[in-house]
Amino acid sequence: MKEYTKFEKARVIGARALQLAYGAPPLIKVPEGIVDPLNLAELEFEKGVIPITIIRQK
Predict the structure, then answer these.
(1) 3-state SS record for 2-53
(2) Which of 17, 34, 38, 53 qualifies as a FRET site for 7, CA 20 to 30 Å off?
(3) Fold of the domain spanning 6-47
(4) What is the pLDDT of residues 3-55, one digit of tens each?
(5) Which residues neighbour 18 within 8 Å (Cβ) at sequence distance 6 or greater?
(6) Using CB atoms within 10 A of its CB, is residue 16 exposed (0-12), middle (13-18) or buried (19+)?
(7) pTM of the model
(8) Alpha-carbon torsion 4, 7, 12, 16, what sign?
(9) 42, 49, 54: which is closest to 3 by C-alpha?
């Protein structure tokens, strides 16, 4: 997995949590007890399955 800054990580997790809150299907099997989109987005980020790409300016 790439190294992300704390700002990039926050942006990706926040964007994915918003998608989940609006009904997007989860990309992983949802563990029992997880109902918050933010927690689910964090789990997806840790597993590296979020299809969002970071492009940095050089």
Answers:
(1) CCCCHHHHHHHHHHHHHHHHCCCCCCCCCCCCCCCHHHHHHHHHHHCCCCCC
(2) 34
(3) Eukaryotic RPB6 RNA polymerase subunit (3.90.940)
(4) 899 999 999 999 999 999 999 999 999 999 999 999 999 999 999 999 999 99
(5) 37
(6) buried
(7) 0.90
(8) positive
(9) 54
